[in-house]
Amino acid sequence: MEVRALGRSGIELSRIVLGCGNFGGIGSSPAFFGSGETEGEAHALMDAAWSAGITAFDTADAYGGGRSETFIGSWLRTKGPDVRDRLVLTTKTFNPMAEGADSGLGAARIHRQLDGSLARLGVETVDVYLAHEQDPDTPLDETIGAFAELQREGKIRSFGGSNVDRRWLEEALGHGRLDCVQNSYSLLERGDETGVLETCAREAIGYTPFSPLAGGWLTGKYRRGEEPPAGSRMTLRPEPYEHLRDERTFDALEAFEEHARQRETSAAALAIAWVLSHPHVTAVVIGPRRPEQLRPAVEALELGLSPVERETITELFT
Question: What DSSP string describes 245-270?
Fold first, then answer.
């Protein structure tokens, strides 16, 4: 699989990154800790991803209340040193790891949380460490200073931010060099095109977007006039996507599906290919629930959208 450099960090990522947010839970929500993929199911997904050439995994300390990192660690223990040497691990911190637990990006908490992540993952160093959210209660220089100290100690190789806006990014750059930004980006969420992506390009910062399928909206899962499928994102955590329930969105989705049919590919593969075709996208984080759901991401790598086709697809959603 093709790899790309993550900014100026010296780290190379496979262009598809396995998102492990559903291992032992549904993201960072304490209400769903203990649900999601079981340890065995997570191992099967990681095996399938590795076989497909995906050598970068993305997690967070709060995913599943620590279960995601624990499952990755137990998977790594079944592999030889070659896998660990080649695997690029990203983890993040900010959210509470249990109902009522602390959160934030204070220096002491960052040091404590990383130590916990390293123990659960069973590694001595994390390749990419990210602030999982913006923390309005902690001075940003304190957060960046803590990350830089961990880097000097050899506990992390690079750092950056997730779910951050341009203002956060520009201020953070005033306190040191960043290597990575990880935000939501898709045909249905393009806010980063005006600000964040420009800053990443100017400063040679890697950009590894998640949710290229907009919570399943770009897969054909949700239909005009139909109830969402049982167990789908729109039945479990619909809030981030409620704004998409309108006629304009369904018009665009139907035109997009027709374009995919003409291309003889799936809507999911075409949506991921559209994200990958942005010149400043380093790699895309996908979060399959089953091994067969890796297929659209692998197919996306082979589509090779031209700038003209990318613009044609973009105009469907404009």
Answer: -SHHHHHHHHHHHHHHHHTTS-HHHH
